[in-house]
Design brief:
heterodimer, A: mainly beta, two-stranded antiparallel sheet, 1 helix, 10% helix, B: alpha/beta, eight-stranded mixed sheet, 18 strands
Amino acid sequence: MMQLECPCCGRRDESEFVCAGTTHIARPPPAASDAQWGEYLFFRDNPKGVHLERWRHSYGCGLWFNVARHTVTHEILAVYAMTDPPPLPAVAD
Amino acid sequence: MRYSALALVRGALTAHRHWAPAWRSPEPKSAYDVVIVGGGGHGLATAYYLAKNHGIRNVAVVERGWLGGGNTGRNTTVVRSNYLYPESARLYDFSLRLYERLARELNFNVMLSQRGHIMLAHSRHDLESLTRWANAMYMNGIEAQLLTRAEVGELIPALDLSADARFPVLGGFLQRRGGTARHDAVAWGYARAADALGVDILQNCEVTGFVKGPGGRVIAVETGRGRIAAERVGIAVAGHSSVLAKLAGFRLPVTSYALQAMVTEPLKPRLDKVVISPGTGVYVSQSDKGEMVIGGGLDLFTSYAQRGSFAVLQGVVAGALAMFPSFSRLRLLRHWAGIVDVVHDSSPIIGPTPVPGLYINCGWGTGGFKAIPVGGWTFAHLLATGRTHELAEPFQLERFISGRLIDEAAASGITH
């Protein structure tokens, strides 16, 4: 089973966590056009490679945190706080 | 060569030496009228209907791996049209009707078995929503039948109907025309029929880029076997849609997830329906070989790995055993995953892309197999005429800007 490193609780099984998709998505301003709003809500890079994503230790301490993970190998390259900037560029292989 | 009982008998007399390959393996030409990226069910069906319905035979299907080696060969082979909204009902029932005559049309036995598809209800609220759903199907002209608990028990004797089951069964509903078809045969049948009409199927031919001409229009694809020019290019690559879109310079409202499936060792006939439980999130059918075919929910994180995680596997097996306790001593024979292209409203995209000359068929998510005939039919219409097929009009990329989503998530069978 895949394991993730919760910044609070340490290494735990994947089944304790919930993935909440791509992180670092900025909400557009209130005057945004329909196209900008649609982009924000629905359109994603969906990379085959490194993906920066939000996880929550839902069945543990409840902490939200960011993860850089490879979507082919599932290797976890970095774990960092919700408000931290990305530690490495999300690049497709 | 036409397949028939007579051909079999003739073959038996000549040690079966007369069988020829079902399709050619041609060298790529330098240019085609239409190039279809993706040699799965949707791509091959598109090529077939381009040749058959529109007379466009100068067509190539380019496939990175081998034919039908992606989701077409990895699904649980279920066909059905029990959708909630009129747009989806029209689309999927058209597909099921094409399936009903597909073996004859392609001269290839796709082993369609309309054994019936049963959705279970585990609570009073489930029963109410199933009633609404069945009524919606009737409004859309598709037959459905509500079942009492006793009727479910008659149709599925192996199912645990006891009151202390993990998810007690209170009833269900049946689509009699639902069932299964042989997935490989669908790919092979379309490939053979398309090839016979002149379509070139190019395997081991990965698309590595799109060549654009004046006005940003796609004029050719770069492949591992050289540049191939095309008047129009269609993408039908399911889980890899975003990867191809990135090569062409646009984004999609798609997330790729691994969807697992598994089969047990074969046993004697025990289950002659497709049964799905919203409580366990698991669905089960028995293949013609006798294997129990089991599917469940998605691995809910982005993945291109074509292998499932153990956490989900465990949940799916537990769910299957909660439904069928007598399967507890069966061993799993095989287990695999396909990469599915999930969009927010669980409805497909069959239309033009922001890049002129480039069209896409994607977003089928966890339910692409049942839609292969209609996906091919409507995508061929689009590639042949440049105009969206009437059935596909609601299923455009533009809906993610306008907000006119067709939210089939609640009716897709299980909550992914």
